[in-house]
């Protein structure tokens, strides 16, 4: 047993660090070691229990109701508010769309109105559930949804309007009251994607931050998603989808008695549901409590302010928009250096920052998800960022061979064969095997020249190459 675990530890040592604040995307670290211990112990206690049947495992039923009640209390819910614990933000968003679609079964082409900064989970929902997307451009300076344009996009077949609190890419809260009012005026549901922000924004507001209204206190908001595995600092695998009342939630439930086995009865996309993540979240939320989250929000807020001010002071960088929460996106204020190289240089110095490709009005930028664990090392982060920008400046811009760029620009992903994709991936340096090379800038620069459908296909083929077991 020890040998197996030693092997696992060795494997894990090759990952990005999930603690210590050096990985500024994907992971959320409270910086409190007992939080991990309690989560692990609670996970172990309940991982064999199955949420498939809450009457067989009433502990899971109780913990789910407790978590939903806590989330509803935090987000201005009332006695009518109900919810569902899901496996993550994407599942919460999928279920919000599914519930909205199935509440209007007569529609031939149900529509989803979303700001272009809405999370890709909604594109996935539209894809999976056959819902027509109506993507509305955001303000090109603030990156906030444009309420007039959102209102104008609503029509008779709109089943759901989506905005974010805040958006992942820029960390800004959309004007929820105006958008919700427009939706309500047309009798349409309005989902607030609070996956990344809804657990921390209420605490930031209590600390005096100027947080725009976004929760159930806003008339017209019918559902909110909030991920506990983000700023509730829970172990991965837990999100909550709240609905303003049970009638709104009802249409994402599923039952089937049409087979010889047990009547399948599912509130979520999963059927067997591990009790592990739920119990871990329940334990962490109770352990930290309201005061614990307030303290974590306080240090996170300080870290965000220091990092933001530091970035604004680095020659050549510019923060995008006016971030409302704990996320910061910054871009190059002038040509002459390459942001992908800055990310590579940060990697060399032990930090992971997340490149975001240009899209619509949003230029190529680097994203930071700041958590409580970043508090205390802001100066070190900023010194390394300054050095990384200098290194990128002296390296100069990464250029893609114009012939290669022209070749890539002319490719049609629809007509390429798997073999041609293989050649392209090899040419791009994306061959799978040991994963990614240390220097991503040349690959990212090439990917940036590819139109989005081609980039999607290339990366999917790459994913397939990654998920191919080698010889055993
Ligand atoms: C993270 C996130 C999601 C998706 O959540 P997952 O847990 O990664 O599935 C959806 N919306 C927003 C705003 C997010 O930040």
UniProtKB/TrEMBL annotation:
UniProt similarity note: Belongs to the group II decarboxylase family. Sphingosine-1-phosphate lyase subfamily.
Swiss-Prot/TrEMBL keywords: Antibiotic biosynthesis, Lyase, Pyridoxal phosphate
Originating species: Amycolatopsis saalfeldensis
Highest classification ranks of the organism: Bacteria, Bacillati, Actinomycetota, Actinomycetes, Pseudonocardiales
Protein name: Glutamate or tyrosine decarboxylase
Alphabetical list of SUPFAM superfamilies matching this protein: PLP-dependent transferases
Pfam families: Pyridoxal_deC (PF00282)
Alphabetized InterPro entries for the sequence: GrpII_AminoAcid_Decarb, PyrdxlP-dep_de-COase, PyrdxlP-dep_Trfase, PyrdxlP-dep_Trfase_major, PyrdxlP-dep_Trfase_small
Post-translational modification N6-(pyridoxal phosphate)lysine, affected residues: 230
GO molecular function: aromatic-L-amino-acid decarboxylase activity; pyridoxal phosphate binding
């Amino acid at each position: 047993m020890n040998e197996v675990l030693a092997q696992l530890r060795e494997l894990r040592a090759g990952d990005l660090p999930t603690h210590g604040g050096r990985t500024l995307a994907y992971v959320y670290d409270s910086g409190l070691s007992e939080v991990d211990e309690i989560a692990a112990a609670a996970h172990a206690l309940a991982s064999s229990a199955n949420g498939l049947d809450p009457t067989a495992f009433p502990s899971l039923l109780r913990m789910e109701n407790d978590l939903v009640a806590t989330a509803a209390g935090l987000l201005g819910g009332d006695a009518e508010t109900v919810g569902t614990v899901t496996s993550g933000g994407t599942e919460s968003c999928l279920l919000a769309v599914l519930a909205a679609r199935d509440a209007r079964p007569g529609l031939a082409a149900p529509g989803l109105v979303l700001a272009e900064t809405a999370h890709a989970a909604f594109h996935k929902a539209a894809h999976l559930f056959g819902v027509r997307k109506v993507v509305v451009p955001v303000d090109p300076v603030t990156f906030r949804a444009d309420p007039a344009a959102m209102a104008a996009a609503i029509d008779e077949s709109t089943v759901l309007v989506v905005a974010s609190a805040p958006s992942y890419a820029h960390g800004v809260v959309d004007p929820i009251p105006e958008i919700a009012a427009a939706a309500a005026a047309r009798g349409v549901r309005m989902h607030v994607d609070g996956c990344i922000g809804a657990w921390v924004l209420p605490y930031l507001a209590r600390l005096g931050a100027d947080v725009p209204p976004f929760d159930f206190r806003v008339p017209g908001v019918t559902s909110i998603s909030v991920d506990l595995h983000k700023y509730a600092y829970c172990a991965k695998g837990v999100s909550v989808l709240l609905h303003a009342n049970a009638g709104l939630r009802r249409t994402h439930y599923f039952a089937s008695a049409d087979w010889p086995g047990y009547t399948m009865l599912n509130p979520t996309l999963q059927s067997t549901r591990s009790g592990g993540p739920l119990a871990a979240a329940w334990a962490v939320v109770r352990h930290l409590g309201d005061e614990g989250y307030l303290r974590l929000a306080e240090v996170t807020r300080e870290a965000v302010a220091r990092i933001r001010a530091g970035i604004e002071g680095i020659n050549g960088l510019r923060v995008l928009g006016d971030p409302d929460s704990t996320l910061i996106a910054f871009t190059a204020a002038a040509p002459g250096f390459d942001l992908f190289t800055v990310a590579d240089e940060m990697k060399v110095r032990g930090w992971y920052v997340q490149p975001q490709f240009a899209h619509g009005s949003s230029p190529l930028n680097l994203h930071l998800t700041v958590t409580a664990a970043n508090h205390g090392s802001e100066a070190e982060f900023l010194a390394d960022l300054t050095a990384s920008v200098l290194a990128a400046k002296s390296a100069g811009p990464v250029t893609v061979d114009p012939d290669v760029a022209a070749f890539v620009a002319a490719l049609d992903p629809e007509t390429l064969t798997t073999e041609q994709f293989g050649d392209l991936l090899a040419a791009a340096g994306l061959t799978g095997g040991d994963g990614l090379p240390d220097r991503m800038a040349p690959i990212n620069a090439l990917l940036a020249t590819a139109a989005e459908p081609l980039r999607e296909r290339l990366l999917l083929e790459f994913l397939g190459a990654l998920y191919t077991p080698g010889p055993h």
